[in-house]
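PROTEIN DESIGN WORKSHEET
SECTION A - STRUCTURE
LENGTH: 203
TOKENS:
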């Protein structure tokens, strides 16, 4: 993106975003690791101005349908949607660490859905709470809800631009791989920039 692009983020802002979400995900990922008794591995956060349709296409190779998701909106200095998504097979492997899985089940039942929702609540709202502390402004997340379907049904297919932060997640055993996604409304990009500037002095 060109420097005069209204959606452009300079290198300092880019580094700060990566560091913010890296710190923000650290504590909830550690809590989940403790709960599961297994390391939860996180990628370096990546971000771009994109669209839901393009995000869906980019993630499609890793997201064999049906895709299971835990999603919730958040509001504060900036607004958007946070989601934790895993393909169905990975979902069963993940929640199987917490609840007994019926090997004959053809998909997550109510108990498995509840377990994934609780995991999503730990990761997503835990990260938002950490971000609130880092930027010195409250970010309030709604109670995440469960949904499943094709990737475009879960993530969306709109062509409107969003600021997209992606963190890949995997269990150390390698049988559960998914993504934590944060889709920020472009309308709140200036507020997001200001929050980044406030936090940069504290990083």
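SECTION B - SEQUENCE
RESIDUE ASSIGNMENT:
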């Amino acid at each position: 993106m060109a420097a005069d692009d209204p959606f452009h983020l300079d290198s300092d802002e880019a580094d700060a975003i990566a560091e913010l979400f890296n710190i923000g995900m650290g504590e909830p990922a550690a809590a989940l690791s403790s709960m599961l008794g297994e390391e939860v591995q996180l990628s370096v956060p990546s971000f771009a101005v994109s669209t839901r349709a393009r995000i869906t296409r980019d993630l499609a190779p890793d997201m064999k349908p049906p895709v299971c998701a835990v999603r919730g909106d958040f509001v504060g200095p900036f607004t958007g949607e946070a989601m934790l998504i895993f393909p169905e097979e990975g979902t069963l492997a993940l929640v199987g660490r917490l609840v007994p899985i019926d090997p004959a089940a053809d998909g997550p039942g109510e108990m498995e859905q509840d377990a994934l929702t609780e995991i999503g609540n730990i990761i997503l709202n835990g990260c938002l709470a950490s971000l609130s502390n880092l930027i010195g402004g409250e970010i309030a997340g709604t109670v995440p809800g469960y949904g499943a379907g094709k990737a475009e049904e879960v993530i969306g297919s709109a062509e409107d631009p969003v600021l997209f932060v992606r963190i890949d997640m995997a269990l150390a055993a390698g049988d559960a791989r998914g993504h934590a996604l944060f889709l920020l409304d472009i309308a709140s990009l200036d507020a997001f920039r200001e929050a980044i500037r406030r936090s940069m002095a504290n990083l």
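SECTION C - NOTES
Residues 74 and 141 are 4 Å apart (CA to CA).
Residues 11-36 form the longest helix (26 residues).
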